Amino acid sequence: MNIRQIDYQQYKGEINRFSLPSASAEYVEFCEKFWQARPVFIGVFNDSGNKLKAVLPLFQRQENGMAILEGAVKTYTEVLNIDSDTALNLNIDLFAAFIKKNYKFDLLDLSICPIINKEIAKLNNFRARTAAYAAKIEERDSERVFKEIIGKKSRNQTRLAYKNDLTKELGGDIEKFYLLYQSSMQRLGAVPKEKKYFYDLKSAFGDNFHVLFALKGGKAVGANLWVVKNQYLSLMFNASDKEYWNICVNNFLYWEMISWGLKNNIIWFDYGINAPRDKEQIHFKESYGASACPICHFLVIKTPGAYFKIYRKKLVFLCKLLIKKVKR
């Protein structure tokens, strides 16, 4: 195999036929708008170097003076097969070796998560504990999907949400979404993304950018934000008002999102990453048809600043714990 960086514009038409948001023209535009940077595309060619067989999209950016090379949408990426037979011969270690040799970076945070191309996970024996959770639903009949794919408890909770008069609103109102999102992030003790991130995402993805709101008495009490590339739906953010969890607002959001996807020819529903400790979230996603897609993770840290970026949350937690003990 011959591996080298490719010019995205040269292969844009070929790559955009596939259902992978991180390799899409829309995502390239988003990166240019928000980060003022372009994704990197690494191509796998045949031995003679004249036939493109597979592509790995990455993202290269600067942050606080650090050069960062990482996965794309939602911090992970995937190998896109141009040639359907290539999966049997690809070794992820080859990509890692190529990146280390040919790119300058302070931090390499490469998470490869095969959702569409699961054969690569089998070939490379992915056994990472952290995984993305995604559902592949080819059935189009929503009643059959509800009965045969959605778990019994989640079916009952979804019905309860409708009995409590939750209604939906589909659109792209970022101001309304951001209020819910900001509140959810504060509740979790996390730093919210700036509002510009969402406006740029909407601008880049256009008609493939969607926000679904759950309304109670006209008030927005929950929202799912997703982007679409062909037959792939990537749930970017879920936010909800904890006061309304007892009426199953998130069950309502997931089922309405799936129903929308069935009507719009979506096959892959990507619900995002979870660590093993997130047992409740994992169980919830599995009850809506998801299965674990193990992530192959390469982490290379070259500078003190990069160490701090990766481990700052743990450092902050340890500092707070130490302060509490000193006060006692």
From TrEMBL:
InterPro entries: Acyl_CoA_acyltransferase, BioF2-like_GNAT_dom, PG_Glycine_Bridge_Synth
One Pfam family hit: Acetyltransf_6
Membrane-spanning residues: none
Protein's name in the database: BioF2-like acetyltransferase domain-containing protein
All residue ranges annotated as the BioF2-like acetyltransferase domain in the record: 173-277
Organism in which the protein naturally occurs: Candidatus Falkowbacteria bacterium CG1_02_37_44
Source organism superkingdom: Bacteria
Classification lineage: Bacteria, Candidatus Falkowiibacteriota
